[in-house]
């Protein structure tokens, strides 16, 4: 009789069998847990940075509005003395409308003269804290936000002495 062909050691379609299991203490372990506290810190500091950046932008809007309102009020008044007092009140009202403390506003001016075709300006400055935490408040003084606004007095205004010399 002829010899039989040699048999393979295992059948060709057979699954190789179970792998050895890791020790029980390593099952379902999640790698990278130690990074979570750092991720939370980065999130918190990033949020604080955005809040502070928005505080600067909001302060810029507020001082721009304050200087604009002060200049407009003086340019529309008929006397420089009462007009300056009204302009300062208008600037404080504009700052208060933004939820800011009017006592911290520094308003310098007016520059220019209240005559027909003259130009008047005010400069408003407001301090911005170095760090501002929404519920607690601000700490430190990082820098001042400043805005200057100029306005031309109308050439055809009544109530002002002299003639218009706009040259145009």
Automatic annotation (TrEMBL):
Record key words, sorted: Membrane, Transmembrane, Transmembrane helix
TM helices/strands, residue ranges: 35-57
Domain of life (superkingdom): Bacteria
Region Disordered: start-end pairs: 1-26
Protein name according to UniProt: TadE-like protein
Species, as recorded: Iamia majanohamensis
């Amino acid at each position: 009789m002829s010899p039989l062909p040699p048999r393979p050691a295992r059948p060709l379609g057979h699954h190789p069998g179970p792998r050895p299991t890791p020790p029980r203490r390593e099952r379902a372990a999640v790698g990278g847990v130690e990074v979570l506290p750092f991720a939370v810190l980065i999130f918190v500091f990033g949020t604080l940075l955005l809040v502070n950046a928005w505080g600067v932008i909001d302060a810029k809007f507020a001082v721009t509005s304050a200087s604009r309102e002060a200049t407009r009020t003086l340019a529309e008044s008929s006397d420089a003395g009462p007009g300056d007092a009204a302009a300062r009140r208008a600037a404080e009202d504009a700052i208060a409308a933004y939820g800011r403390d009017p006592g911290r506003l520094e308003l310098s001016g007016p520059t220019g003269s209240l005559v027909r075709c003259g130009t008047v300006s005010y400069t408003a400055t407001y301090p911005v804290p170095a760090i501002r935490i929404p519920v607690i408040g601000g700490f430190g003084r990082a820098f001042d936000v400043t805005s200057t606004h100029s306005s031309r007095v109308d050439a055809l205004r009544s109530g002002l002495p002299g003639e218009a010399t706009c040259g145009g």
